[in-house]
Design goal:
By secondary structure, the chain is of the alpha+beta class. It is built from 3 helices and 10 strands, in the order βαβαβαβββββββ.
Length: 115
């Protein structure tokens, strides 16, 4: 599995997590009982499917190796294995946080760690 996983979050929600020292998830994560992540090969489709037209988003890169046994890869969209975290995200696992601006053809991604 990939060493790096990615979370897309509204900037205000992520800044609150930074103030709290951990990210407990977006409303969909809380409802599902785990924090949804994507690999580098999945994150663009995730943005298009779940965040189309949304501005003020951030892309958060996470070192999956720091998440331990709470991280599980489970079958989701199209039968692909998606990373799901069954715990709050400790901010020391975050590699970087970058803007995910909305361009003319969707979100404009920065270079990803494992591409």
């Amino acid at each position: 599995m990939s060493q790096f996983i990615y979370k897309i979050a509204p900037e205000a929600m992520w800044r609150e997590a930074e103030r709290n020292g951990r990210f407990t998830g977006a409303p969909i994560d809380i409802a599902d009982g785990f924090i949804h992540f994507s690999t580098s090969t999945q994150v663009r489709e995730t943005a298009a499917k779940h965040f189309a037209g949304q501005a003020d988003l951030l892309l958060i890169a996470v070192d999956a190796a720091k998440l331990g046994n709470a991280l599980k890869y489970e079958v989701s969209r199209g039968g692909a294995l998606f990373p799901h975290l069954y715990a709050a995200l400790a901010l020391d696992a975050v590699l970087w946080v970058r803007p995910l601006p909305l361009g003319a053809h969707g979100h404009e991604f920065p270079p990803l760690e494992d591409e």
